[in-house]
Design goal:
The protein is built from three helices and nine strands, in the order H-H-E-E-E-E-E-E-E-E-E-H. The protein has 172 residues and is an alpha+beta fold. The chain folds into two domains: 60 residues, no CATH class; 103 residues, no CATH class. Strands 1, 2, 3, 4, 5, 6 and 9 form a seven-stranded antiparallel β-sheet that branches. The longest helix has 27 residues.
Length: 172
């Protein structure tokens, strides 16, 4: 966040500097308001660029074994350009490298989900997937595992057959 703030300020100074050089080269014929307007437009442009490139930069730096399962695009009326070109504000990554299954219940997979959001800390939660039943349960509320791999006290939620998180967890 701090680096993006510095980049935005530098972009404003750079745009104002370009207008200043253009003004000097034209014999100071440009209106005085051009420099602050150029600085403001440069800062707005840098902010928009950071919004649209956040997802690609973050997903690119994911450690090996984490795969993006789902993205959430954002549109807002305060940013009218997002009505035409929404940007990714949140995404969910699944840790496929450490996903595991009990030998007696191969259709159930246990994996960690990581929730990434713009301007938000990364959250992690273990989730149990029932691939045959098309359902999943977050294991943050104290589910109990028996020796045979069965789970009690799990709050199972039905997931659609086309759910990208379930598909990624159950593949392979």
């Amino acid at each position: 966040m701090f680096v993006e703030l510095i980049a935005t300020i530098v972009a404003g100074i750079a745009c104002a500097g370009l207008v200043m050089l253009l003004n000097i080269s034209t014999g100071r014929r440009l209106p005085k308001w051009m420099m602050p307007v150029a600085a403001g437009l440069g800062m707005i442009g840098m902010t928009i660029s950071n919004e649209y490139t956040w997802y690609a930069r973050t997903a690119e730096r994911l450690p090996e074994g984490l795969e993006v399962a789902m993205t959430v695009d954002e549109q807002g009326w305060l940013r009218p350009w997002t009505q035409l070109w929404p940007y990714t504000k949140r995404f969910v990554a699944l840790d496929v490298a450490t996903a595991r299954a009990h030998q007696d219940l191969p259709d159930q997979k246990l994996a960690d989900l990581y929730f990434f959001g713009r301007w938000s800390p990364v959250n992690q939660a273990p989730m149990l997937f029932d691939c045959a039943g098309g359902r999943a349960a977050l294991l943050i509320d104290g589910a109990d595992f028996a020796a045979d791999g069965t789970v009690s006290n799990a709050d199972w939620q039905a997931m659609g057959a086309d759910d990208p998180i379930l598909a990624l967890a159950c593949k392979g």
